[in-house]
From TrEMBL, chain B:
The keyword Signal applies. Residues 1-17 form the signal peptide. The keyword Metal-binding does not apply. GO terms for cellular component: cell outer membrane. One of its GO terms (molecular function) is copper ion binding. The gene is pcoB_1. It comes from Acetobacter oeni. Keywords: Signal. This is Copper resistance protein B. It comes from the Bacteria.
Length: 571, 284
C-alpha cells in the first residue's frame, strides 16, 4: 500500500529546501542544466523567419537540484523563442515525439480557427509520431507566446515566446531586447495536484490562520474584533489566506527556465534602453514584478502598444504579456524580482554589465489577505479612483446583485452581492505599498480602436466556483454541463464578467481581441487575456470576425481543466 | 523622471506628447461615438458605421460536434481517495487496544461511492464496534452530500444489517459533520460524528472529535442500549509532516450510558474509559 508517492513527499519538503536557498543567498550552488543555456533562451532570434520545425519531446532538466523530465521543444524548456514578421505567412511543422497527443496554441494570435491549436475545436491534435503543419498569415505584431492545449503539458514545460516585428521593421526602441518567460515548475504529477485539491482544497496552503495569528491579531485589533472577523469568514467556510490554489510549497518559480538560485542574467551597457518582454507562462501563479531602483515604462500589454506608463511594479496573470523598457544609467547589477502573488516564492533575474554578478535580492513583501470586497460585498475602492467604471451607462462602478438567477449550490460557493469595477486597483497585496503599481485603468492604446460600432448585445457571464470542492465554471456550470456561447459572424458584442469567487481569474478568449472598457474611450486597450479580480465586474467588446469554434476559458490551468471553459461558436 | 519621460517620448514615436496625459474620467462613452479613422496595426474587419450591428447568432439546431469527438477539457473525471482518520493504539491502566476508523470514496463531483469502516480490537483480542458501510453519496449543496446505502455490523459479535440514510459535509465554521440514521427489523439507530481542526501552526493541528450512537432498542449481544448508548471522543494532536501522513498523540474517552452502561456493568466491562492514544492519520 503506497500512502504517498515519492515525488509527493519530496514536493512537500520543498519549503525547507527553499529556505536553504534563501540562506545561501542565491550563491548558485545548484546549476540548472537545461540543454539550452540561459543566454540562448532569453535571446530573441537575430531576425524573423517564416518556416519552423518544432519537435515536441521530453526534455531532461535539473531544477532545484532535482532531476525531472519536462515537456519541451527541440531539446529546450522553455521552448525556443519564435520571431515572426507582420505580413509574412508562417509555416510551422510540429512533430510529436511524446507518447501522448499534443498541440500548440498560438496565444493571442489572430488566425483561422483551424490553426488555433485546440484539440476538439481547431483540429484533432497531433498524435504521437505525427507532424502537423500550421500555416497562417501574421496580421499583428508584438509579444505573444505559445503553449500546449493538451492535458497538463503546459504545467510540465510546453511553452515559449513569440516576438513579432512590425511590418515596417523592428521598432528600434531599445538597444537590448530580452524575453522573460515566467513559469511555475513542479516535479509533482499535475493530475495528482488536481486530485489532491479535489480532496483537500487547501492542500498546498501552509499559510493559513492559526492560533498564533489569532493571538497576534487580538493584540493588534482587540479580541472582540478578531473573534468577529474569524466568525465572519468561518460563517462562509472560506479563508482569507486563500490566495493561490497551488503554492511555492511545490512550485519553483522560473525565469527563462532558471530557478531563483541561479537566476537569469541580461547584459546591458549603462545608458542603453533594455526592452523586457514579460510573459507569464505559469499554470497557476500570478506574479508581481519589479526591478528595485529602476522605473519601468510599460509600453505594451498583450502585444499591443500602449501609451508608456512609468511604474515601479506590475502584476501579471497567467497568459498576459507586458513589454517594459528600462534604462539603467549605472553599472548595477539590478535584480529583476518576481514574487508570486501569495508570496511563497519568487523568480529572479539580473540586469548586469557582465555575467556572474548577482544583484541584491529584496525581502518578500507581506502576503495579502482576501477582504470582504473580494467577497463581492462592495466596500470603498482602495485605489482612490472611486469614479472609475466601465464605459457603460455611466454606472458608478457598483451594481446591486447582478446575480440574476444564480444561487449558491454545489458549484457556486458564493455570489457577489455588490460586484464593482476594480480596474483602478493594482490587486491584492499591492495596495499602499509605496510603489507605483500598474492598473488596468492606466492602459491606453496608442491608436484608436478601429471598430466604432456599438455592440448589438451584451453577454453577461458569472465566474463561479466552489473552492471547497474544487469545482470551477461559468454561471455555476462546468464546461460539460453548459451550452456553447453563440456569436454571429461579424457581430459585435459586449461581454460582461462578474467574478463571484474569491480568486482572480485571467479569462482568455481565443481568436479575437478583448477590448477592455477601462474608461479610455476609443483608446481602450486590446487584450487577449483579462484578469478579473474577486468581486469585480468588468466589460469588454469583441468583434466576432472569424468563423469557427473557439476556446474561452480561465487561464489558471487547473480551473480550466475542471470546467472553467466554454466553447464559443462563431457562424 | 526626466529620463523616463524621454524614453517614453522616444517610444511613442509619432504619437503626440499630449497622448501621455491619462485622462480617464471624461473619456467614458467614447466607444459609442466618434468613429475614428482606422489606423491601427490591429487587423480586423474594416470598421462599419457607428451604429449597432444588426447581426444575431443563428439558433443552433444540433449540438456542437467536436472534432474527432475530442472534448477540449476533461471536467468530468473520476477521483478516488481513502482517508484513515484513526489508526491508533490506546492505552489505559489495564493494557492496550487498537482502533481504526476510515473511509474511502470514488466518483465524480456529484456522485460518489463511499465506503466507511471502523472497529476496535480490545484488550481481550475481541473485535468490537465493527461497523462497515457502503453508501451512494450525492452532492446536494455547497458543502454537503446525501448518502444512502447499507451498514453491516461485522465483528466478533453477531452480525447486524442496517439500511442507512445520512448527510456528510462541512458545516459552517469548518466543522466536519456526519449524521446518519439506520433502519432494520430490530428498530432504528442514529450516529452523529463531528470533528474540528484547530491550527496551532500550519502543521501542528489539534483535533477534537466525537462519535455518538443512539438506538431505539437494546441489543445486549452487541453491548448497545436503548437511547443514547455510547460515545467515543478524543482530542488528538497531529503533525502534518506531509499532508497525507500525520502522526498524532492524544487522549480518548469512551463511555456507555443509560441502559448500555448497565449492560457493560453486568458484564464487568468498562463503562467509562480514558486512554492515551498514539496513531497515524493518513490518506491517499
Amino acid at each position: 500500500m503506497v500512502m504517498y508517492s515519492f515525488s509527493e513527499r519530496r514536493a512537500l519538503s520543498r519549503r525547507r529546501f527553499m529556505t536553504g536557498v534563501a540562506a545561501a543567498g542565491g550563491a548558485g550552488a545548484v546549476r540548472s542544466f537545461c540543454p539550452a543555456d540561459a543566454a540562448t533562451l532569453s535571446a530573441v532570434p537575430e531576425r524573423s523567419s517564416t518556416r519552423f520545425s518544432l519537435s515536441v519531446e521530453s526534455v531532461p532538466v535539473v531544477i532545484g537540484g532535482r532531476r525531472a523530465m519536462a515537456t519541451g521543444i527541440n531539446g529546450s524548456m522553455p521552448a525556443p523563442t519564435l520571431r515572426w514578421r507582420e505580413g509574412d505567412t508562417v509555416e510551422i511543422a510540429v512533430t510529436n515525439r511524446l507518447d501522448e497527443t499534443t498541440s500548440l496554441h498560438w496565444h493571442g494570435i489572430r488566425l483561422p480557427a483551424e490553426m488555433d491549436g485546440v484539440p476538439g475545436l481547431s483540429f484533432a491534435g497531433i498524435k504521437p509520431g505525427e507532424t502537423f503543419t500550421y500555416r497562417f498569415p501574421v496580421r499583428q505584431n508584438g509579444t505573444y507566446w505559445y503553449h500546449s492545449h493538451s492535458g497538463m503539458q503546459e504545467q510540465t514545460g510546453l511553452y515559449g515566446a513569440i516576438v513579432i516585428d512590425p511590418a515596417e521593421g523592428p521598432a528600434g526602441t531599445a538597444e537590448r531586447d530580452y524575453v522573460l518567460v515566467l513559469s511555475d515548475w513542479t516535479d509533482a504529477d499535475p493530475e495528482q495536484i488536481v486530485s489532491n485539491l479535489k480532496f483537500q482544497s487547501d492542500y498546498y496552503n501552509f499559510r493559513q490562520r492559526t492560533v498564533g495569528t489569532f493571538a497576534r491579531d487580538a493584540m493588534r485589533n482587540g479580541v472582540g474584533a478578531t473573534i468577529r472577523d474569524r466568525l465572519r469568514w468561518g460563517a462562509m467556510n472560506m479563508a482569507p489566506t486563500d490566495i493561490s490554489d497551488v503554492s511555492g510549497i511545490i512550485y519553483t518559480y522560473l525565469m527563462n527556465g532558471q530557478p531563483p538560485e541561479t537566476g537569469w542574467t541580461g547584459l546591458f551597457r549603462p545608458g542603453e534602453r533594455v526592452r523586457l518582454r514579460v510573459i507569464n507562462a505559469a499554470s497557476m501563479t500570478l506574479f508581481d514584478m519589479r526591478i528595485p531602483g529602476l522605473t519601468m515604462q510599460v509600453v505594451a500589454a498583450d502585444g499591443q502598444e500602449v501609451e508608456p506608463v512609468p511604474v515601479d511594479e506590475f502584476r501579471i496573470a497567467p497568459a498576459e504579456t507586458y513589454d517594459v523598457i528600462v534604462r539603467p544609467e549605472g553599472e548595477g547589477p539590478w535584480t529583476v524580482f518576481v514574487q508570486s502573488e501569495d508570496r511563497t516564492g519568487y523568480a529572479r533575474g539580473t540586469l548586469a554589465t557582465r555575467p556572474g554578478l548577482p544583484g541584491p535580492v529584496p525581502p518578500m513583501d507581506p502576503r495579502p489577505l482576501r477582504t470582504m470586497t473580494d467577497m463581492g460585498m462592495g466596500g470603498t475602492p482602495a485605489g482612490g479612483h472611486a469614479g472609475m467604471s466601465a464605459a457603460h451607462g455611466g454606472m458608478a462602478g457598483m451594481e446591486m446583485s447582478g446575480s440574476g438567477s444564480l444561487k449558491e449550490g454545489v458549484e457556486v460557493q458564493s455570489v457577489a452581492m455588490m460586484p464593482r469595477s476594480r480596474l483602478a486597483e493594482p490587486g491584492a497585496g499591492l495596495e499602499g505599498n509605496g510603489r507605483r503599481c500598474l492598473t488596468y485603468a492606466d492602459l491606453r492604446a496608442v491608436r484608436a480602436g478601429e471598430e466604432a460600432r456599438a455592440p448589438s448585445r451584451e453577454i453577461t457571464l458569472h465566474l463561479t466556483g466552489n473552492m471547497e470542492r474544487f469545482i470551477w465554471g461559468f454561471d455555476g456550470k462546468k464546461f460539460s454541463e453548459a451550452e456553447p456561447v453563440d456569436l454571429a459572424l461579424g457581430e459585435r458584442v459586449r461581454f460582461i464578467l462578474i467574478n463571484d469567487t474569491m480568486m482572480e481569474h485571467p479569462i482568455h478568449l481565443h481568436g479575437f481581441w478583448s477590448e477592455l472598457e477601462n474608461g479610455q474611450g476609443a483608446f481602450r486597450p486590446y487584450k487577449h487575456t483579462l484578469t478579473v479580480k474577486p468581486g469585480e465586474r468588468l466589460s469588454y467588446l469583441v468583434t466576432a470576425d472569424t468563423p469557427g469554434m473557439w476556446a474561452y476559458h480561465c487561464h489558471l490551468l487547473y480551473h480550466m481543466e475542471v470546467g472553467m471553459f466554454r466553447t464559443v461558436v462563431v457562424s | 523622471m526626466r529620463r523616463a519621460l524621454t524614453v517614453a517620448l522616444g517610444l511613442a514615436g509619432a504619437v503626440p506628447a499630449a497622448g501621455l496625459a491619462h485622462d480617464m474620467g471624461d473619456m467614458a462613452g467614447m466607444d459609442m461615438g466618434g468613429a475614428k479613422k482606422p489606423v491601427s496595426a490591429v487587423s480586423v474587419k474594416p470598421a462599419g458605421p457607428a451604429k449597432a450591428s444588426p447581426v444575431r447568432p443563428r439558433k443552433r439546431s444540433a449540438p456542437v460536434k467536436y472534432i474527432a469527438g475530442i472534448q477540449p477539457v476533461m471536467d468530468h473525471m473520476l477521483y478516488g481517495h481513502a482517508l484513515l482518520d484513526e489508526f491508533e493504539a490506546r492505552f489505559d491502566g489495564r493494557g492496550g487496544e487498537f482502533r481504526y476508523d476510515g473511509q474511502g470514496w470514488y466518483g465524480t463531483d456529484y456522485d460518489k461511492l463511499r465506503i466507511k469502516s471502523e472497529g476496535t480490537v480490545g484488550h481481550d483480542g475481541r473485535f468490537g464496534d465493527g461497523d462497515h458501510e457502503i453508501l451512494y453519496d450525492r452532492a446536494i449543496s455547497r458543502y454537503f452530500g446525501v448518502q444512502t446505502g447499507v451498514r453491516l455490523d461485522v465483528d466478533s459479535g453477531p452480525t447486524r444489517p442496517w439500511g442507512a440514510v445520512g448527510i456528510q459535509g462541512l458545516a459552517l465554521y469548518f466543522f466536519d459533520l456526519e449524521a446518519t440514521a439506520y433502519f432494520s427489523d430490530r428498530g432504528a439507530a442514529g450516529r452523529l460524528q463531528g470533528s474540528y481542526d484547530i491550527l496551532l501552526t500550519n502543521r501542528l493541528i489539534l483535533q477534537p472529535q466525537a462519535e455518538l450512537n443512539f438506538y431505539s432498542t437494546a441489543d445486549r449481544t452487541r453491548d448497545v442500549g436503548r437511547g443514547f448508548s455510547d460515545i467515543d471522543t478524543g482530542l488528538r494532536l497531529r503533525y502534518e509532516w506531509f499532508r497525507k501522513f500525520a502522526p498524532y498523540a492524544g487522549i480518548t474517552y469512551t463511555g456507555r450510558f443509560g441502559q448500555a452502561a448497565g449492560i457493560a456493568r453486568s458484564r464487568d466491562s468498562v463503562v467509562h474509559d480514558v486512554t492515551f492514544t498514539f496513531g497515524l492519520r493518513a490518506w491517499f
